[in-house]
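Consider the tokenized backbone below.
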């Protein structure tokens, strides 16, 4: 089930340097039905490739264990739904440079939230996703979706039955892929000459500069800079020509690409320059990242323990996968936080992996009248704080763990911005 890598996932370089060990951790989405259930834990650590600069996990978990039954549903986030509209507008604008842009394929399409705007624009859509429970949900809501892990076999079936799409996009999936070369090769097979191909990834520069170590968990095998992302795409004759930024995951990039080389946009060239100046791809920067993560842990624990010492009750908001890494790395558990609220009904009345904290609907958590709420899904900070203030009249303190350093604030400070 767990395999240790001995070469880079992209370029097969055998000179990998380990630099950050987060210890043995449970799978982030392996929520417990009962508190203190026995659970498996797996190594969670990072290496840096000296050849292509890819930051990557040292171990790979069987994808079937991670993704065949999934608990993240995109439509539970209003921010994600709003961004889906902007994303589609950007893609359609770019696609209009081609003659035909009527057929859209999304890989790892989840519940189809990001395909809906394309349907509304009169386009034919198709999703592919490995989670049977999510695929059934999508199909029941009118988003045609195939269940399966993206592969050359699925690509060839789609081509034979529906032809090659004019738009292919893969959002926040490339970092999850164990055999990344086969994955990208299958996209190249599915694309025609003028197909617009878009990849969205949580940007390594953001992770590095704002210390997003909570984005490190077993599902995320790779942490892409623009340089390392371009390396894997070019290897399979997919060429980046433009880029735009995304608010998802606390800061992502969307690269726009095709099957032949075109002149790079001014914005893309400026982004490349900024990445070099900020030394995003250097080992020294990532070594410092590791050091600061331990400093963050101490600071966050100090904030939480200070509130507990004066008798204040702490709750959490957002039982996200990233919160699992944060809680387990910082050794925060049910002795610190009694409940965590989450909008996703698939998580309700379960317990967080490793930290054993009960997950409830927001209303149940708020009935317990917490004095302080730690925003674990901090990448949706403004959406969550507005919900807490407007619907639950919460006006007390919140803890915002990221970006570094962690902070304790009055909720109104965040809302007023």
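A designed sequence for it:
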């Amino acid at each position: 089930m767990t395999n240790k890598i001995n070469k880079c996932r992209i370029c097969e370089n055998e000179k990998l340097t380990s630099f950050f060990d987060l210890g043995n951790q449970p799978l982030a989405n392996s929520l417990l039905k009962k508190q203190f259930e026995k659970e498996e834990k797996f190594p969670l650590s990072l290496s840096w490739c000296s050849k292509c600069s890819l930051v990557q996990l040292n171990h790979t978990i069987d994808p079937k264990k991670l993704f065949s039954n999934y608990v993240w549903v995109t439509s539970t986030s209003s921010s994600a739904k709003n961004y889906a509209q902007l994303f589609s507008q950007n893609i359609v604008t770019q696609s209009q440079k081609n003659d035909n842009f009527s057929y859209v394929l999304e890989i790892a399409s989840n519940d189809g939230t990001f395909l809906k705007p394309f349907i509304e624009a009169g386009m034919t859509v198709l999703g592919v996703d490995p989670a049977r429970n999510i695929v059934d949900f999508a199909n029941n809501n009118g988003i045609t979706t195939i269940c399966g892990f993206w592969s050359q076999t699925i690509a060839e079936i789609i081509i034979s039955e529906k032809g090659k799409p004019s738009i292919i996009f893969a959002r926040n999936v490339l970092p999850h892929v164990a055999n990344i070369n086969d994955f990208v090769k299958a996209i190249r097979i599915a694309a025609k000459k003028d197909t617009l191909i878009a990849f969205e990834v949580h940007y390594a520069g953001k992770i590095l500069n704002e210390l997003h170590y909570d984005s490190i968990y077993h599902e995320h095998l790779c942490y892409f800079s623009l340089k390392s992302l371009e390396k894997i795409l070019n290897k399979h004759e997919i060429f980046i020509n433009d880029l735009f930024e995304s608010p998802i995951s606390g800061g992502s990039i969307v690269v726009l690409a095709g099957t032949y080389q075109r002149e790079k946009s001014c914005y893309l060239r400026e982004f490349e320059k900024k990445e070099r100046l900020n030394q995003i791809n250097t080992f020294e920067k990532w070594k410092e990242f590791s050091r600061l993560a331990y400093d963050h842990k101490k600071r966050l624990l100090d904030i939480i323990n200070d509130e507990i010492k004066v008798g204040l009750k702490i709750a959490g908001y957002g039982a996200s996968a990233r919160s699992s890494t944060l809680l387990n790395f910082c050794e925060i558990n049910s002795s610190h936080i009694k409940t965590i609220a989450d909008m996703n009904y698939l998580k309700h009345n379960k317990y967080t992996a490793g930290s054993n904290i009960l997950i409830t609907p927001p209303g149940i958590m708020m009935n317990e009248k917490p004095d302080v709420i730690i925003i674990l899904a901090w990448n949706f900070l403004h959406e969550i704080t507005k919900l807490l203030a407007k619907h639950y009249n919460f006006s007390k303190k919140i803890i915002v763990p990221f970006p570094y350093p962690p902070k304790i604030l009055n909720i109104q400070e965040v809302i007023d911005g």
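The first strand starts at residue 2 and ends at 4.
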